[in-house]
Specification:
mainly alpha; 2 strands; two-stranded antiparallel ribbon; homodimer
């Protein structure tokens, strides 16, 4: 049932994205934007739609921030894959944007996807001015130099450092790099209904960390064909990860603990939050 | 008097930017953001502050969108200068970000400057939720794949085309590449006071085009040391510009005409709009 709900959300987001992009002039950069946003688990979009459902938000309003966060996530991947960053050829089993087009188009497509995210969260369909301003302001904070970009900058700094990162430093890095956007996604429903952010915030902080630990485990244990990108890159590069710092068994134990903490945080929502609890379990059990 | 006002605006924006950036963790990416936003004429920020003054907006509110548009403009320059784009070593007489640091930091700093722009226009200090949402939505539209990025994408497409662009195509390209942000800047005051955008919109469309024609003239007639970046690049690359399409004399005549149209559009504001009229004349007369 959770799988079905995840698939339904992914389909709704894809349909919405196709519609939005169809209104743009059909240039290579727009094709590249479509390519970059195609596929993936849509976990962030799912979190937006589920948290909106928990707060009785009209799905026609919630689809905008759900699609926005997927556009923003895609921008970060397109730029992350660039030769000057991680230099990846493959993403979701497809050639990366700079491989399929060239670097200039990848830079521009990433830039425009970020812009599109802010355009989508501030659409009139989303809600009152206060709601739209809140979503844009919080999305900017989560994705900028105090959130996602901070994580990426710490990652770049770590690469040139001779001292490997500590567990606390890896945690800070990952909370910025992936945690901030996951937290934003899961709190959208509370933001749109002007409700208490705390339960969803606690839930998503645990979820984000579990997600990243699972990613590090997959990098060691996973299969490149299933994941759709190269594996063993972090271990090969001698990068400090949760697995290198904790060992595989302890990393798995912590991930399970975090799934439990995430579930517990949602007690106020009762059975209504089953899908979000399942999402936490899914994040750790996933094979890609 | 106009020069003094331009300098005062530039100083106010610099002070505000320094303050905002001082709250970020002092990583290379944040230093790069400061470097990229340092200097320049601040024409866009000036347009924001002047249009806000025309509409009796509190300068303490207007400084946020003024600083935001300079951050957004700086992001576009940092990415434009990248080796895969225009490959420029010099900007405002200083090494470009990827030269002073490296490409990864330039990509990230540009990304974070874009995010910062949206963070700044949605700050609570700016105004009501409606105003903040309007500014963010319109800024996204002006800078995305239907505005600035569209212009940049057309520019990239033109480089690989064997047919040189027509005057109409160069005009569309430039209206996206520089015109959209200039128009946004000049209409901020009307947006913040929920007033008619038309006079400032007509003014800024003429201003933006005059600005670009002047840029093309400077590329032919200007002095690299004064401008702070390489000249003769467009002519050398056989790129269609207003000068190559119209000839130098006709280009100058059109620029003057546009300055007049820009001034005329502001008649509703009477003498209050003198600084904006002077800005139009300045844009064409400038040497850098």
């Amino acid at each position: 049932m959770f799988r079905q709900r995840l698939t339904d959300c992914a389909d709704a987001i894809q349909t919405h994205l196709d519609h939005v992009l169809s209104e743009f002039e059909r240039l290579p950069v727009v094709d590249a934007m479509a390519h970059a946003t195609n596929g993936g688990k849509r976990l962030r979009g799912f979190l937006v739609l589920e948290s909106a459902r928990l707060h009785d938000i009209d799905p026609k309003a919630a689809i905008w921030p759900a699609t926005a966060i997927e556009a923003l996530h895609a921008y970060s991947l397109v730029h992350d894959d660039l030769p000057c960053m991680d230099d990846d050829d493959l993403r979701r089993g497809q050639p990366t944007v700079h491989k399929k087009w060239e670097e200039a188009t990848a830079v521009l497509a990433g830039d425009a996807l970020q812009t599109l995210a802010f355009e989508m969260v501030t659409r009139p369909e989303v809600g009152t001015g206060d709601v739209r301003a809140n979503l844009a302001a919080s999305l900017a904070k989560a994705s900028g130099a105090q959130g996602m970009v901070l994580g990426q900058a710490l990652d770049i700094a770590a690469e040139t450092s001779i001292v490997p990162l500590s567990l606390a430093q890896v945690t800070t890095l990952q909370q910025g790099k992936t945690g901030a956007l996951i937290e934003w996604s899961a709190t959208v429903g509370a933001r749109m209904s002007d409700s208490d952010l705390a339960p969803l915030s606690t839930y998503s902080k645990a979820l984000g960390l579990a997600f990243q630990i699972a990613d590090d485990i997959l990098d060691v244990e996973g299969d490149a064909a299933t994941i759709g990108k190269a594996t063993g890159k972090d271990a090969g590069a001698g990068k400090a990860t949760f697995v290198s710092l904790l060992g595989l068994d302890e990393a798995k134990r912590r991930a399970s603990q975090l799934v439990e903490s995430a579930s517990d945080a949602l007690s106020v929502y009762g059975n209504n939050a089953t899908a979000l609890r399942d999402a936490a379990a899914f994040v750790v059990a996933r094979k890609n």
